[in-house]
Design brief:
The structure is a single chain. The chain has five helices and two strands, in the order αααβαβα. By secondary structure, the protein is mainly alpha-helical. It has a two-stranded antiparallel ribbon. Helix 1 crosses helix 2. The chain starts with a helix and ends with a helix.
């Protein structure tokens, strides 16, 4: 079961590849302000858990996403859709 923040992150990536900034913009509409570091950490966790994937198939570290957010693009996986 996902918490509301995780659900909104997943929902933001349901129809297309999205960058950290695009995900944050969508999530903040529904959940209020979220720090970029916390969002990057959550995305990395969702990727680690197989619920999201990075476009180039890279292992995702939150620090890397924060350092170059436009270089990382994410979407929901089939397993993420099932959840």
């Amino acid at each position: 079961m996902l918490d509301s923040l995780s659900w909104e992150v997943m929902n933001a990536t349901a129809d297309d590849w999205e960058s950290l900034h695009q995900i944050m913009s969508r999530v903040c509409e529904f959940c209020g302000q979220v720090e970029p570091a916390a969002m990057a950490e959550l995305i990395a966790t969702l990727v680690d858990n197989g619920l999201m994937e990075e476009m180039q198939g890279r292992i995702v570290q939150s620090t890397d996403v924060l350092a170059d957010p436009i270089d990382f693009w994410f979407r929901m996986t089939p397993m993420g859709r099932a959840v």
